[in-house]
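Supplementary Methods S3. Input chains for the assembly prediction are listed below.
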Amino acid sequence: MARFLIRRVFQGLFVLVLMTFTIYAIFFLGPGPQLVARVLAGKEATPAQVAAIASHFELNQPWYVAYGHFLAQIFFHGNLGYDYYNSVPVTTSIMQALPITLSLVIGAAILWLAIGLFTGIVSAVRTRSFADRALTAQALLFYSMPTFVLGLLFIWIGYSVLTTHGVAIFPAPGSWTPFTTNPLAWAHDLILPWLTIALVSAATYTRLTRGAMLDVFGEDYIRTARSKGMPEKRVIVVHNLRASLTPVVTQFGLDVGVLLGGAIITETVFSLPGLGWTAIKAIQSQDLPLVMGITIVASVAVVILNMAADIMYAVLDPRVRIH
Amino acid sequence: MSFNISGATAQVEAVSVAEPSVGEQQKTIQGKSPWVLAWRRLRRDRASMISLGIIIFIVVCAIAAPVFAAITGHGNMTQYNTIGRTAAGEPVGPNSTFWLGTDSQGRDLLVRIMYGARVSLFVGVAATAVTVIGGTILGLAAGFFGGWIDSVIARFFDWLLAIPFLLLAIALFSVAVQSPIFGFIGPGLPIVIIVLGFFGWASVGRIVRGQVLSIKEKEYIEAARALGAGPWRIMFIDVLPNLLAPLIVYTTLLIPLTIVGAASLSFLGVGVQPPTADWGQMINDASGMFLYGSWWYLLFPSLALLITTLVFNIFGDGVRDAFDPRGDLYV
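Predicted structure tokens for the full assembly:
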């Protein structure tokens, strides 16, 4: 186990270095040496600001020196640069947006897993029943549904049509209440965005859970359990679910990138000022340090969470450690 | 010539499927290739055949878009500021001139949707082709040669898998819109193809690698080696053809994902750029105004996108079941 852990952590660090280099390459090497400071400073920057950026990122040094400096600033000083457009450090802008994205992602993840596992289990236990067919069709529909189409549909039907007919149960898009202010209002404001991410992504898990459970039902130990006279409920819960849910839940850890993508789109659809919405707005105002900061924070989070999921899988299922 | 998908299974089934009536013993039993069997199974699947019909219809619409534009006399870029907009400058709803209404610029929505099908299908097919070809080559090399080549490719895949594609697109676009990245990656189609094509290599590559590892142990590879075939010959003549079935299945299932990915990029404004007609972009434009009454502007491009991805997914599922009735091609 220790060997697996060490190897996995080293792999994670390696990917992290590659990832930061990718981002560095896009923002610092991409525009070419003459334009890089100009591009990073944004369209409204004064020549003095452009010069300040060039010296801050040590752009006059060779690229590997500048890249080392860039890494050191991020990981040792927690400094993601200065947001010239909003005149605050990038970390300040990110900290403002982060609670919204986290609220969105955590709530959606819980709903996502709950819906995906429940429908998958029902489908697998009652194979070929009406419920199975209906759920499989439902999964196919949502699997094919682009996140933004579902989100706009929710705004249209759930907010607009219902509200004009006097049933104002869902808030207008853009509503946001911090959890600390009022947890109920927080959940009420986020229910449509949560459902948008959860329904689209849960469809994959309906299929995944159903497939995994059906595979396990074919195993010898299930037949043994049944022939011992074990009640079917116990066979399903104790013998099947334990085996089939491990890969499904772990897959979930690997899908945080998907979750993040869903959050970016959903924030844009519902005008929630989270990280994704902020990044899109930052493109429009040519606020590149902010775009870069968000890209770094989000991709580092994805790498670390993927690594955590892998390690958890190895803890839960000893067979994984061997390879 | 043997396209051996699952070895003995295919042959056993060939015998049982080829001769349904036991009475006619004099007829010789014909061996059918797995391709023929798969096609027969697919043809019997009604949902897949209907989906295929709709896919063909969408392709015809995309190809015939200029013809349709000529018939109606409405160009895809022409703005009808007098008849295509209300006095307040709002889009006009569906009527006898504009069957599906007009968009925010007073252009014919139906014509734009047909032109949008071209972009979606082109990106869906082109990016998927880049993904499948690149992934296959890398997966083949990793699985076949093993050793350090495998390790390097595995780390490369780790890197590709760790990058969230939407963020990458946002990052690339934010720079490219000001100055082309490395001098040649501009905003629009180049970024879309790079993000969706290049960054899918890992998922295809891992599947191919797994398949190659199991094919490598098969007797016919040993036979080829015994006959003196070199590694390149074995790789392309003996291994690659046996990968075609899983690749075809994967490709059909990848196309709808790519189409949704491209539409998401345009919805966020970092994909195909205006004035090119694109479904994701139309939906983005409509999202700001459908609450004020222009429901058609949101509904019809959304339906076009949803139906396209849905039929590709149904067809892809059908193709998978046809090649692999037991469901073990995909683990």
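Confidence is low (pLDDT under 50) at residues 1-20 of chain B. Residues 2 and 33 of chain B are 8 Å apart (CA to CA).
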